[in-house]
Every structure is written in C-alpha cells, then in structure tokens.
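SAMPLE LOG
Freezer: B-3
Tube label: C17
Construct: single chain, 437 aa
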Amino acid sequence: MFYNRTKELKTLESEYQKKLASFTVIYGRRRVGKTALISEYIQGKKHIYLYATEGNIGQQLRGFTKQIKRFVSAQLAKHLSFDSFADAFEFLAELRLDSKLVLVIDEYQNLCRLQRGFSSELQRVWDLYLSTTNIHLILCGSVLSMMHSEVLAYNAPLYGRRTTNIHLKSLHFQYISSFLPSVTKEEMMRIYASFGTIPKYLNEYDATQSFMDNIQHKILNKNAYLYSEGNFLLKQELSDAGTYFAILESVSKGNTKVGSIASNLSKPSTYLTPYLQKLIELDILQKEVPITETNPLKSKLGRYKIKDKFLNFWFYYVYKNYNYLEVNQIDMVLDELSLNFNDRFVSFAFEDYLLEDMLLNHQKYFSFRPHRIGRWWNNKEEIDIVAFDDDNICFVECKWQNSVNKERVKEHLIAKSALVKGDRERFYLVIGKGDYL
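STRUCTURE (predicted):
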C-alpha cells in the first residue's frame, strides 16, 4: 500500500527531469515509509537499488556489481568486477545511457559504519565524475545522527552536494482511514493516540480485533514486534541511552517543563540541557512555547513533548512497566490503560488532530486565514488552541467528552482569554467529541 507523499514524489520527479546529474538525500526515522517512497518513484525507470546492510562490504559490492551488469554487454559483464565502490561509481559515470539512471543507496549509514571515509570517497567521485552525468543519486538513511554527520551538517563530507533533501515524517491523521477503512471515527482517534501514524505501525493494526486486543497483542506482548520498537529505535541513535530514556519516560508521565523533568530525575536543569537539545535534533522531542510569544527563543515558558504518539504511548505503558510485562503480567497494564488512557492520551491527541486540521483546512473553523495557530499558556492558565492574524483572534477549547456544556466552557474560555492582551476582534470556539464524530 502506498498513500500520500505526493509532494515528495513531485520533488523526485522534478529531479529526474533535470538534464544533468541530481543528488537527493532522503532521511527520516525507521518505518516512516522511505523505502516505499523510493519504490514508487523508481517504477518504470532505469535504476540500481542497493539496500546497504551491516554485513560484509565486499559481498555488498558484488551485489552492486551484479546490478551494474544489467547495463553493459554480456561479454563485458562476464568479467566485470571492482575493487571498491568508488571504482564502481566511476565506471557508472562512463556509461552511455539513453535515459537518466536512478542510483539508490538505501540505509546509507551502514556503508559509512563499515568503511571509514566512505562519504569522503563518494564526495571525490561525485565532484570529479558523477556530477556531470545523467544520474540521479539518492542516499537514504534512517539513523538521523549519522545522516547529519555524513551528509547534511555543515562539516559533513557531502555537505553542499545535494540538489534536494526530503525529511520524511509521520503521515497526517486523515490517512489512518486509508490503512484502516473499516474502523470507527472514535477508534481512529484511539489508534492515533497509541499507534500513531507511522505506516508500518498502522499496518500492524488488526481491524478485525478490538482496540484493546490490538494493544494487548501488538504492543504489550513481549514477543510482539512493537514491544521492543521504542528500545531499538532509540538505541540506533543514542550511545548513552540511559539518561535519554529517563528523560523521555519523565516527559511521557507529564513532566513537560525542564524544572519538573530535572526534579523527577534528581538532576540539575543545566545537566539536562545537552540531552534535551540532542533529542530535539533527532526529531524525537519538541519544545513548544505559547503561540503569542514574540521572541520564542527567549521564552521562559517552554514545554517539552514527545513528537511521535507511538513513542509517547510506548514510554508510558511499555517502558515504565517492563517489570510487569516481562513476566506476562499484562492485565495490570491493561487496567492502568483503561483507567487513564482517555484522559492522558486521547484527549491530547484530539487537540493535536484539531490543530493539524486547522492548519490544513482553516476555512472549516475560522472566518479568517490565521497567520499563526498553536497553544497558549502562562503560569496559571492555558488555552488549547489560539489562532490569529493581524486583525482577528480565535480562542478554541477542545473537549474529548461524550457530553459537553458548551456555554459553561465558553464562559470560562472568555475569562481566560482576557489574559491574552491585544485589540484584535475576538472569536470563541468550543469543539467537543460529538463535533468530530
């Protein structure tokens, strides 16, 4: 199944149409759909696709050579071999092709691990040979730290060579129904709050079973694929995993301010700063400030949240409860989930869904086109969503409840909105569970 990614495909096709060489970097976390995007793009095109593993580099070079042989005469192919990938790339640069060749190295970081200086050698080959050919080179990787150090960062060997880069992220909420067309809208929100919108995780969900059965068998079962996913995902990126895991577990429990995280871990706030920054760089954590802040970088009201909903769920219900789950005491975790999942996860997922939908479809909610949309809070109060342009501002309260007294909620919202200063025309909106369903 292949859904969405139309912008990314358009970018790749634009690169393909260029008369000279093009160089695309595709990166993003595991299971986000990078390989599926590439597979869709190369259909019907001349291509060489190498999936780099952690195995012997010589064997991988032989596999790469086998693919090159498809583009040469049978007589030449018979004796074709290379001493290095650099030699193979140089040979490709000499080929005369009647159409562009797409050259893909997937999981590129594995070749960099196996051969020190691989990126520097590829830089040399690109500069001297490949950059003047009719080749579209694609480097794809899922370990963000290595993709930055080898390709994307200013001091990376391949910095400045790429003609485009694509950071592939989770799908929008609306695409859950493409994977799971038979689930109810309420169940979709619960899936969003737990499985998230990574394509591979959505494919794990079994729509013939109940939501709780899926949680039990697909995530909480210690033999399930998703049970160890959080552990595997982060240990790929982080060498000193202990402190990072402790921070993420603390954030998943609701400690969103640096002071409360530090207090929870019995560490000084200054000690946590580099760890928090690293998690932000890896696209695991994000720092939010009130949407009305005029100088966000200097705001003292910053809050941290785990960006990926599955990881947030995993840290709270799996990582925190290893002691129970490892000895198959799943019922204790299911009881906890029944008690607090709606309040701790689904209600916030509902807010995130509305925030995303407002950004994509503002006309459904506002009579004006907002310049900015986000959350607002101070030291005492908070408002779920605030949207504004130069002349208008709308305050929004989101309630994932079966019955909502909208008038009472609106009265409280109006009172809180008085804390947001300004002379814009004011609007108020209360959105309940029933409005979504």
